[in-house]
Amino acid sequence: MDIKKLISKMTIEEKASMLSGADFWHTKAVERLGIPQMMVSDGPHGLRKQRVDDETAGVNQSIQAVCFPAACALACSFDRDLIFRLGQALGNECQAENVGVILGPGANIKRSPLCGRNFEYFSEDPYLASNIAASHIKGVQSRKVGSSLKHFACNNQENRRMSVSEEIDERTLHEIYLAAFEYAIREAKPWTVMCSYNRINGEYSSENKYLLTDVLRDKWGYEGLVVSDWGAVNDRPKGVAAGLDLEMPSSGGVNDKKIVEAVKNGKLSKADLDKACERVLTLVDNYLKGREEAPVWDKNADHELAAEIASQCMVLLKNDDRVLPLSRNKKIAFIGKFAKQPRFQGSGSSFINALKVTDALSSAEKYADVSYAQGYRTEDDVIDGRLITEAVELAKNSDVAVIFAGLTDLFECEGYDRKHMGMPECQNELIRRVAAVQPNTVVVLHNGSPVEMPWIENVKGILEVYLGGEGVGEAVCDVLFGKVNPSGKLAETFPKKLSDNPSYLNFPGEGDFVRYSEGIFVGYRYYDKKEMEVQFPFGHGLSYTTFAYSDLKLYAKSITDKDTLTVSVTVKNTGHVAGREVVQLYVRDCESTVIRPVKELKGFEKIELAPGESKVIVFTLERNAFAFYSDKIHDWFVESGDFEVMIGSSSRDIKLSSVIHVESDDKMPFVCTPNTTMGDVFALENGAKYLEKLVGSFAESLSTESENNDMGEATKLMMEAQLRDNPLRVMISFSDGNFNHEDIAEICDKINNDLNKK
Ligand code: BGC
Questions:
Q1: What was the pLDDT predicted at 448?
Q2: Rounded Cα distance, 324 and 485, in Å
Q3: In ligand 1, which atom is closest to the CA atom of 161?
Q4: Distance CA 490, CA 78 (A)
Q5: Residue 694 pLDDT > 90
Q6: Judging by beta carbons within 10 Å of its beta carbon (0-12, 13-18, 19+), is residue 261 exposed, middle or buried?
Q7: Where does the pLDDT of residue 150 fall: very low under 50, low under 70, confident under 90, or very high at 90 and above?
Q8: Which of 42, 79, 229, 478 is catalytic?
């Protein structure tokens, strides 16, 4: 397609019309110019292609497809290759179904456990979220199908998602919320990015030039297309000028007309219209170029993959007395409706019409004889005494009770937030009652987000499955019976209670405003800084084997901010079964002029080890491992100094650490004014010299005082400390007429001139 030539032949009306959908799921065709339609479909953990005979917004009317584990589970794999394979499978399915773009993945940060859509998001940590998103996108796009990284940006709650303004300071926005997208965009280059519904600092994402052009395109170099979330458009011409190319779904021509009017009356430039049109045509062109002749969609193979992935994502949270794996010749009870009808995906736009769902009860047959009791109801949260008594009786007469519990759609769903972090009371009661009669109780959780566990001390084992996709039943049995050794790690912290969470005081905000007053202290960044006990820390996950960490090597003692640092560590499987371990690398800035987290994830690798086997894991750290985002320079900044490189098996289980010195060329701009503090001037190179005259006499008076006074030294230190925080101009008040405004201005000029010379 010669796109520039095509555009030159198009009328303003035709171009404007290209910038919105033909219907819910297709871009527009221009028959006159031979431009075909292209179909897009949800995502992100399966193909939700709506049936052609039913082009409505209904969520359940899609073709049958394989439902893979949801994002909340996927991130726990900490496994880039596994996620890439998932992406490939999704890409294949899109090829087979002639879908040009799959809408996902979602990289939004889990700010609060209450966000109703957390199950579609990866993590509370931007490094992890962005890395997993990048692998997902690379997998899909390796099959010549486009991804749509969403929801850009800060769609961190469902409450008033179409009107709320997320009030976020610049550093937090970049260091946490945008960072979750940045690496994925730079590294994986998604064909499309979907803007979010909400506003950021007052401006709708769909017309936010700072977001869609200044940051996304100019700073990050993004060359793809930006599509609106479905119905996110507010002011369409403003959106085009800001960088929103395609409006979805169709506005029935209403907004296209607005674009035409705006171009005709000069409010929107032709160049902006052409640019957006070019991006839509380039997308359609990429889709056409990527079509394969006879694509094959092997649904059964994809189902197997879904089950394999699920088994790699489960997180063994607790395993006292090695209650797991289950031994096959014991009397085993499976309790809870989710054992028969697992909750394996969330509700809303990602809902997949699953091919075949496997449940734990039938999947257990190949391992052991298992008895069953329902235990609770899912249609409401009413404690059913009869169901509980039945379950308790069964548990009493068994050697081990495995309770399948979690959240129902009533408790979490796209479109609304959770009201609390609790599980259904009918399930809590069941767990309490069963655990009271059966010491070997294990809880298997199916949920999209953390839950409070009031019964935690009474059960021996907890397996967090999250929403495991359609192969969840077989996968969970493979893990429970030890065929697969669990290797997932939490991609988010489980706080003990909701009020421990840093967003607690400001979630979901007041009316249409929510202040992110916790700043960069999201998830473990907060719990660590507060030295707070948590239920389960970020990165936590047990195994049926044990690992020993040794031989941490940093291949330099000192580097510059332009160098890379190679780090290696040896991990050995010291147990009796094969297993996978997620080796996590965190970095701490030992001393900083800005407030920084205690540690931040800057690397992870997942390895597989046979019993007795060791492997050396190598990490390469670049400048961004040491940087923070500075709102003074509106960019990332590395401060010279020492940094601790930590290797852990979770964020709270650091096995080894070592220190590296980083010498940085980054300079903070400094302008001296009469209100600059003396301490800030002292901190400059040769800073004391500038202040010699100004504070000299003051210091002298201090030293006389100290000679005559027992408390002299302490007083001097106190005075010095106070002096540091005084602005230069204060000496006018305290020098008895020795200094005036001109003297202070002269000092400032000297400092500024010297700094400018450098
Ligand atoms: C959701 C998107 C989804 C789109 C299309 C919106 O409501 O927020 O994630 O891709 O609908 O179904």
A1: 97
A2: 10
A3: 8
A4: 9
A5: no
A6: middle
A7: very high
A8: 229
